Amino acid sequence: MGVRYRCNDCGNLTRFDVTETTTIRAFHHYSLGGELTIEEPEVLTHAVEQVTCRWCGHGRAIETLSDGAV
Question: What does the buried/exposed string (b/e) look like for 30-43 if buried means 16 or more CB atoms within 10 Å of the residue's CB?
């Protein structure tokens, strides 16, 4: 299970706009016919830039919940 969020202003637990930045290194393998296969993806960095509540429209009261907490 991934990260869960809660908006402490309106109580929303289900609808958020999340802006993330991820940097990945991967092996790009092209066949002789030009078909691309991406192999061995490795996440180098990952950051959540912004979380906004879809119900009340802002991100000033977003809480990150631990696994299993609601």
Answer: eeeeeeeeeeeeee
Contacts of 32 (CB under 8 A, 6+ apart): none
Tens digit of each residue's pLDDT (9 = 90 or more) over 30-68: 999 999 999 999 999 999 999 999 999 988 999 999 766
**Structural domain of residue 45, as residue ranges?**
4-65
Question: What one-character DSSP code corresponds to residue 12?
Answer: -
Whose CA is closest to 61, among 5, 2, 14, 4?
5
The count of domains in the chain is 1
Per the confidence metrics, is the pTM higher than 0.85? no
Query: Which whole-number Å values give the CA distances from 9 to 5, 32, 42, 59, 64, in the listed order?
Result: 12, 56, 37, 9, 14
